[in-house]
Amino acid sequence: MGMRYFLYIFLVSFFTFQSVFAASVFVLPNQQVLQGEPVMVRIDDVASVSEISKTTFDGKSVPVFLYQNKPTVLLGIDLNKLAGEYTFVASLKNGLSITQTITVLAREKKTEPLGIPEKLGGNTLQAQIALVTSLVQENAILNSLWTGKKAFWTQVFRYPLASNTVTDAYGYTRLTGQYTIAHKGVDLRASQGTKVYAMNRGVVRLARMFRNYGKTIVVDHGLGVQTMYMHLSKIYVNVGELVLPGQLIAKSGMTGYAEQPHLHITVRLGGISIDPIKFLALFGK
């Protein structure tokens, strides 16, 4: 009886250890990513999020959620993150850990001139200083917004317009006089008054007018995922309101630092603004 019990315990422990040790991660779109792009890390052979004690990237904690029955993490690579190799670690509650190297590649640098519209003072040094100063203030407000500790979404994300054509891509630098401003979102073609829809379920954390971003909405989707809609002409939602995927939340315009009607969208992961088009290719429809 004693020998049988010992053998049973040994076999159970051995095969349990083997199955957990065999756990691996699958990185989408792949293990090499450009500055400013999102990464999805799927943890295979781990049945539940409850088996994971912590997930980190480059030493910083990142949230994990269940997606397609797999523990999953969304990572945002900052546009200014140094090119090189960084480590993702999933620490399991049984004491084991899974590591994966993710290589960040340098993005090709592009710079284009962009003037200041007359409504914001035109192309004068005074207007340039006012622009940069107010952008710092507006970004501080956006950076302070709270995000929920659980996912509010119940499905993948969607585009905000009925028809979506990119007119200004993510990642290039705008040269305004002696100042440079990175474009950390995308501009979508939209005539004045085009209907703007929520990209997913979430809670409105901000709905207000800014000097530069114009009429702006920020929707918190939880777990550090935020979508931002800027230069709007009309806002139909209020702070604290729960919005649903595809719900009409605004109409496009050219308020703020805009020379013609369009919709600017920003997607943030853990406070990092990443390429919205790459995000939708990874976690959208």
Automatic annotation (TrEMBL):
Residues 183-276 form the M23ase beta-sheet core domain. GO terms for molecular function: metalloendopeptidase activity. It comes from the Bacteria. Pfam families: Peptidase_M23. The keyword Lipid biosynthesis does not apply. Keywords: Signal. Residues 1-22 form the signal peptide. This is M23ase beta-sheet core domain-containing protein. It comes from Candidatus Brennerbacteria bacterium CG11_big_fil_rev_8_21_14_0_20_43_10.
